User: Which sequence fits this backbone?
């Protein structure tokens, strides 16, 4: 498998247990007040190297992109004050085109003929020396601020433009935000950013960059209840559900529901509930499950 030249975003459940403990990351929803967010454009990841005398666009695995000379020209114009001082920068972003499927964008991105309809949506910026070293200790918010200064005047139809950024606490529930973006079309979720994190080439399992994709919903039968831990000791921690490969668990209930169902499990055991999740793992567990409600209108659950 080709090596990634970017700092790879991973889903919440792929962050290492050590990183979650060190950062105090308990669940996806709790990140809303700590992490900023960006739209996850559904295109092809690109690395735009902008030097005074040369501009190169690479794929995330290092292949030279030959269809986007117009993007290289636009980058030279946008960064001309920086280039005039002899400096070189690297823009990280997504090659994208509004109203087109990702498969069509990918085809244009990889061809050797010009594809002038493609745009470059820049979401981060490094100095060339940082990119070549594979490390930037500057916080993401500082890097994005520098990018914003250069591209803040760009228009949504411009060849090179700025990716939107939402400050912590402004975009609501991370999963809900991702689902909203996917429903708009052109996005395949959201990206959460630790504003204080640096940039490291390779895996992002330390929790600096987290991708949130849209959820699926499942109607599952409740077969039991589990006591909670920490602040939920003495009340309901999770519902036990029948999944495709055995029992799975789900949380996300209100405090009132937790107390009521822990005191009287018969009120919920046997019911069919709707659960939103990012699908199932290979072992059959739900990925990032959230309780949505009881399905009183259903007689048969999934996987029965």
Assistant:
């Amino acid at each position: 498998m080709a090596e990634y030249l970017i700092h790879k975003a991973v889903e919440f459940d792929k962050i290492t247990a050590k990183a979650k403990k060190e950062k105090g990351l308990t669940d996806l929803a709790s990140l809303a007040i700590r992490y900023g967010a960006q739209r996850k454009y559904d295109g092809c990841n690109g690395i735009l190297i902008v030097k005074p005398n040369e501009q190169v666009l690479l794929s995330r695995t290092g292949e030279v992109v030959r269809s986007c000379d117009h993007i290289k020209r636009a980058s030279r114009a946008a960064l001309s004050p920086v280039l005039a001082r002899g400096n070189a920068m690297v823009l990280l972003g997504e090659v994208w085109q509004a109203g087109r499927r990702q498969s069509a964008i990918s085809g244009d991105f990889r061809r050797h003929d010009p594809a002038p309809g493609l745009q470059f949506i820049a979401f981060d910026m490094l100095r060339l020396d940082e990119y070549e070293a594979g490390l930037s200790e500057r916080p993401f918010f500082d890097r994005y601020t520098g990018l914003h200064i250069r591209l803040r005047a760009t228009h949504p139809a411009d060849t090179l433009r700025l990716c939107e950024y939402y400050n912590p606490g402004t975009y609501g529930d991370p999963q809900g935000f991702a689902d909203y973006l996917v429903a708009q079309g052109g996005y395949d979720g959201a990206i959460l950013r630790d504003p204080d994190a640096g940039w490291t080439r390779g895996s992002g399992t330390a929790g600096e960059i987290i991708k949130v994709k849209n959820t699926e919903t499942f109607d599952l039968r409740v077969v039991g209840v589990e006591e909670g831990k920490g602040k939920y000791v003495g009340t309901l921690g999770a519902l036990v559900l029948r999944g495709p490969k055995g029992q799975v668990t789900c949380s996300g209930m209100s405090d009132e529901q937790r107390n009521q169902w822990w005191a009287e499990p018969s009120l919920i055991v046997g019911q069919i509930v709707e659960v939103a999740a990012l699908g199932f793992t290979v072992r059959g567990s739900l990925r990032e499950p959230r309780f949505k409600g009881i399905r009183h209108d259903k007689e048969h659950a999934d996987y029965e």
